[in-house]
Each structure stands twice: as C-alpha cells, then as structure tokens.
C-alpha cells in the first residue's frame, strides 16, 4: 500500500477534475496512459489535471481523453478504481464506447488503425530485416568499395539468404495478416480469414509484376477455364488495399449468413457460402478494383515525390505530418505506404516521418536544456525524448511539445526543412520501420549514409530552432 498510496491524493483530485463518476462512461489504461471516455469532454478541467504531480500531459484523440502518467500507470489505475468505486474495462470496450464521440471520418480512421495495429510489430521487424540485408548485401563496404560483405564472407551470404525467409513471410504474404485482422475486427471466423488471405498469395498464383512482364513479352498466362469465361491466375502478393476490401466483403457475407441461416446447418453453410463467393469475387471484381485504387494512390504519392517540385512536396509533408498525428489521420497513411512499397518498390514518406519523430524528440531535449534548472521538467522531459528517439513519440509530442507549443513548432519547422533535404538526397525506404533513430536501417542500402547525415542534421536543427523560439513571444503561448 505504501507504493500505491503515493497516488491517493492525485487519484481523488483526478476523479473530481474529470467531472466526477457521473461524467465517466468508461476507463482503462495502456502502457503509459489513463484512457477515459467521458460523457462530456468539456467538464474535464484539463489545466487542473495537468497540474497534478503525477501527470505528464494529456490529449484527446479517437474519442478518448488520455492522461499521460508514465510507467507506473497501472498503480495509478488501481488506486483510481478503488477511490472512484468503479471498475475499468479492457481497451477494446473503451474504443467501442469512444466511437460514440467520433464523427464518420474519425470512426473510419479509428477502424483502419485497429486493423493495422496488430500487424505493425511484424512490419517493423520486416523493415529492420530488409535494412540489415541492405547493409550486408547491397553496400560495397569491402575491398576498396568493390564488394559487399556477402560477396566476401559465406557466413553473411547465408545470413542474407536466411533472413529473406522472414522478410518474405512478412511482406509477400502480408495480405494473410490483413484479412485475418479484418476478420478479427469484424468478429467473424479468423481462421477463415487466414484461408481467405492465403487464396490471395497462393504459390499457384503469378505475382502482378510477373503478370505484367509476361503480357509485355507475349508469354502465355495461366488461367482458370470455366468454358464461357476464364479468370487469370494472378495473385495479390504484398497488396494491402485489395486484402482489406476482400476481408470486409467476406465479413459482411459471413455475418449476414450467420444471422439468417438456422443453427442446425450453420456450421456447414456459413463457412462454405461465405468463403467460396468471397474468393471468386476477390479474383474477378474486388481484387482488381482494390489493386486499381491502391496503385492509383501510390502513383499520386509517388508523383508528388518524383515531380520537379518533389523537394517542396516533401517539405510540406514533413511540416504537416505532426498535425496528422494530432488528428489521428496518420493511421490512414500506413496502408498507402505499404501499397506504395509493393507498387513502386519503395517509400518516400517514411524517411520524412522518421525525421519528424526525431525532431519532436529533439525539441523536448532542447526544452529540457532551456529549463534545465527545473527538476520537474527534467523528470518529464528526459524519458520523453529518449523514448522519442526510439520511435515512441507520444510522451514527447503530447506530454511536452503541444503543452508548451514552441517546441512543437520548432520540431515542425525542422522536419519541414529536413523533408526537403531528405528528398534532395533521394532517400527512399524499403519499408516502414522504427520511426526514430533506428529508421536508418529501413532505408535502401545506398541511401543509408545520406540518411544518417539527415538524422544528425535534423537533431542539430530541431535543437537550435527550439532554443531560438524559447526566446521569442511564442514561449508565452504555452500551457505553463
């Protein structure tokens, strides 16, 4: 009780400051934050809450009022539950309740985020693997810059080949994970979702790139012959948007049948009559349509980053990206990024995103430097910028930068400038990876040295700009 009692007073005050028990619809916690769904957000005294000694910041996102506590949030949660005489719920129930506070766009973004949340760790691992393979296999580091490590040492050649076993599983077969996650989100049979995904990437199917090459070369393409018509045996390897659409259609059919088919025959009829039509639609209508949408979005993004004004496009993207994070719209970029990687062979946006995250972390470091005599700011700021450099920017962005404003603006300016610099160097990523300093591992091998220079310049620039802004009138607009 001695450890928990340190939160007693703050928990009592927070209950009062969020508007009391009657204003709490539900609450839970995650790794560092208390998450509230409030009946009326306006009843929460944000300034009072952020003045509590245990609170490191707060923000509202996805219909939830989130209060940053830190690593001891579970202890605070237990104390709050006891004092409020209320039971918390799991995160899924809180998300469901929070949707009542969202508009249509916010709900769509939230649903998209929930589909991709379970997949992100695998995508990050895949990005790191591709980056490591680039370093040992693509960069000429040995024998006066004429040979790569894999060309000299058999052990590393074996490592390079072996790691593709994991990389292929993550990226080539990504639609399997997507259809599974859609089915999980829609609360339908997840194993059938996996089967559905496999039908999109089966070894029987030719990849889209091989199909284009075969058509251009005038070679025959295999197809299923139904007499009156035929369907080309072309897969959707690495394709995200077709997998999402197919998963959604399957889920709608499954739920409709589950509701209307009698229980006595449900076990047989529902799986068969939902899976078979979905696979047929996937290879005739939904898949080609989804690929067209995905390729179109990828082409638009790539057109911007490949145009004569690519430097400006990249700079604007870097400057505005933090605003996408605040609104939650950054979640909608992940499927487009993955589609771009599959269609175009690389991602121009992720290098800019990582530089934005690093700038946010550096702005906190500069803020701590400016206020180095304030012990409380050190306590909040140091863990925030360390975690930010490792790719977790929420404590930095929401706990410090937005609260005091000028560090947030300093980070935006720095990431906008570095977006221009990054594109000028032609930096491109193989895949999405860790959005902090380790992001250099996700870049194409020949661009890693240039990107490391970008990271160093980003840190210096964000630090200097934030310190300069601390001496302007902007410092008076923050929430002290």
Automatic annotation (TrEMBL):
Primary localization: membrane
Intracellular or extracellular location(s): Cell membrane
GO biological process: phosphoenolpyruvate-dependent sugar phosphotransferase system
Membrane topology: Multi-pass membrane protein
An MF annotation (GO) of this entry: protein-N(PI)-phosphohistidine-sugar phosphotransferase activity
Gene3D superfamilies named among the record's database cross-references: Glucose permease domain IIB (3.30.1360.60)
Domain PTS EIIB type-1: 8-90
Keyword RNA-binding attributed: no
Pfam family, one: PTS_EIIC
Active site, renumbered: 30 (phosphocysteine intermediate)
InterPro entries associated with the record: Glu_permease_IIB (IPR036878), PTrfase_EIIB_Cys (IPR018113), PTS_EIIC (IPR003352), PTS_EIIC_1 (IPR013013), PTS_IIB_1 (IPR001996), PTS_IIBC_treh (IPR011296), PTS_Sugar-Specific_Components (IPR050558)
Stretches assigned to the PTS EIIC type-1 domain: 110-480
Transmembrane region(s): 109-132, 162-183, 190-206, 240-257, 264-286, 292-312, 348-370, 404-428, 448-470
Keywords: Cell membrane, Kinase, Membrane, Phosphotransferase system, Sugar transport, Transferase, Transmembrane, Transmembrane helix, Transport
GO CC, alphabetical: plasma membrane
Protein name per the record: PTS maltose transporter subunit IIBC
